Amino acid sequence: MDWRAVTELVLAFPPLTQRASRGSTTDQQEGVWRGWENARVIRNRLIAAAPVGDDVMGVAVGEAQLLVDTALRVADWDTARTRDIVAPITREPALVLLTRLNREVRATAQAARERVDAAYPEDYELTEDEEAEVWRDTGR
Predict the structure, then answer these.
(1) What CA–CA distance (Å, rounded) separates 82 from 95?
(2) Separation between Cα atoms, residue 39 and residue 137, nearest integer Å
(3) pTM of the complete model
(4) Nearest 5°: CA angle at 34, between 135 and 99?
(5) In sequence order, which residues have a C-beta less than 8 Å from that of residue 14 and are 6 or more positions away?
(6) What digits encode the pLDDT tens for the residues 58-74?
């Protein structure tokens, strides 16, 4: 339910950079479209997996962090609309939800880094494939 609420929130606010077309330099610099497209992809995964209630749903840590960061930004744009979108889904204030998810995502990323540090000697450098595998394993 939490991730559904966050994706619905982000998708309800198509990038608000007025007079800037999709993929413009302004949008790219602000990461606006990237966050919105990420939310769309995650929402499609939620629909395809058809999770019910609080079923476990895997989302990569990087995608989850981008989603939460984008949601925190759009929550500032219109707090009343944000409340109208999130409250019926989670019965939890948006800022409380986003703060909790932000903490969880950061804790997951930190745990992944600690697992990597414990698994490899200090002077060992991961290959790109090894690093990608570690991040895939920590998806939420």
Answers:
(1) 9
(2) 20
(3) 0.67
(4) 65
(5) 36
(6) 777 888 888 888 888 88
